[in-house]
Design a protein that fits this description.
The structure is a single chain. The protein is mainly α. Helix content is 65%, strand content 7%. The protein has two domains: 200 residues; 47 residues. The chain has a two-stranded antiparallel ribbon with strand order 1-2. Strands 3-4 form a two-stranded antiparallel ribbon. It has a two-stranded antiparallel sheet with strand order 5-6. The longest helix has 35 residues. It starts with 17 loop residues before the first helix and ends with a helix. Bound molecules: zinc ion (2 copies).
Length: 272
């Protein structure tokens, strides 16, 4: 979704992206799920309730602050705002912004502006992630990762307990705070929780691991993608040269097959 010539300031600005609305709808579900369902199951061990809920609660607060900051901060290259149009080795010209910006900046076609130390445009938050708000983006990943880990581990632990220690489990579901869920109801919600949380936790862990590697190497997501594309192009060139060499001294039929291979490689290169 592009927004014409208008420059977006931040992720809270209209028009909202459909995926952003999905995020706003789904994220509270993780909180409701814990406080409505998982926390009461910790009953009657008050110490467990306090420890787990304090960690979950802190992660929730960090997630809200990080989400607000990442969406509220304008990640624009400050040189656009300062109208400092000096040239230099660390500057590049953006013909769309009509100004010289930092060489690490990239023009985002969704936000219609150059973003300082551009990482990526996040449709789930409807804003760019760059040098100005990247640490808050990491804050979201870490805090939501903590929340989902707690929910996932508790769900697994309860389900194991149901089949291993049914007496202890019965003790738990006697809890009046469980809103009258039956034994089968609790089992059903636990199974659905694990099914829903499994892909979410896999995605979050993959993202956290990816960004830890990026930070350790001083790269952005954009740098990583550009490097991957460069390596792919090099690989395609080597394949082309190899096929072109082997085409010499071949029968016309084999040459036609190799030409077909070359066309496939060229198409693949154009799409990366
Ligand atoms: Zn620009
Ligand atoms: Zn953007």
């Amino acid at each position: 979704m592009q927004y014409g010539d208008k420059r977006r300031i931040n992720g809270l600005e209209m028009p909202w992206h459909p995926l952003q609305i999905v995020t706003w709808f789904l994220y509270p579900m993780i909180i409701i799920h814990y406080f409505w369902f998982l926390m009461p199951l910790l009953w009657p061990n008050i110490a467990d309730i306090i420890v787990v809920t304090v960690i979950f609660g802190l992660a929730t607060i960090i997630a809200f602050i990080s989400a607000y900051e990442v969406c509220h901060i304008d990640p624009i290259d400050p040189l656009i705002l300062s109208k400092d149009n000096n040239t230099g080795d660390d500057r590049i010209n953006c013909y769309l912004c009509k100004v010289h910006v930092h060489s690490s900046s990239k023009h985002c076609r969704f936000c219609n502006k150059c973003v300082y130390r551009f990482d990526h445009h996040c449709k789930w938050l409807n804003t760019c992630v760059g040098g100005n708000n990247y640490r808050y983006f990491l804050g979201i990943l870490m805090s939501v990762g903590t929340q989902v880990s707690i929910s996932f581990l508790l769900s697994i632990a309860y389900l194991v307990e149901i089949y291993s220690y049914p007496n202890k489990y019965n003790y738990r579901i006697d809890n009046p705070h469980l809103l009258g869920l039956s034994e089968d109801g609790v089992k059903g919600v636990l199974i659905v929780s694990i099914i829903v949380l499994s892909p979410l936790i896999a995605l979050l862990y993959q993202l956290i691991g990816f960004h830890i590697v990026l930070v350790s190497k001083g790269l952005t997501t954009y740098d990583f993608i550009v490097e991957q594309q460069r390596l792919q192009r090099e690989k395609n060139n080597i394949q082309r040269q190899t096929i072109a060499k082997s085409s010499q001294n071949m029968t016309p039929q084999k040459v036609n097959q190799n030409e077909l291979e070359l066309t496939k490689i060229q198409s693949a290169a154009e799409t990366v």
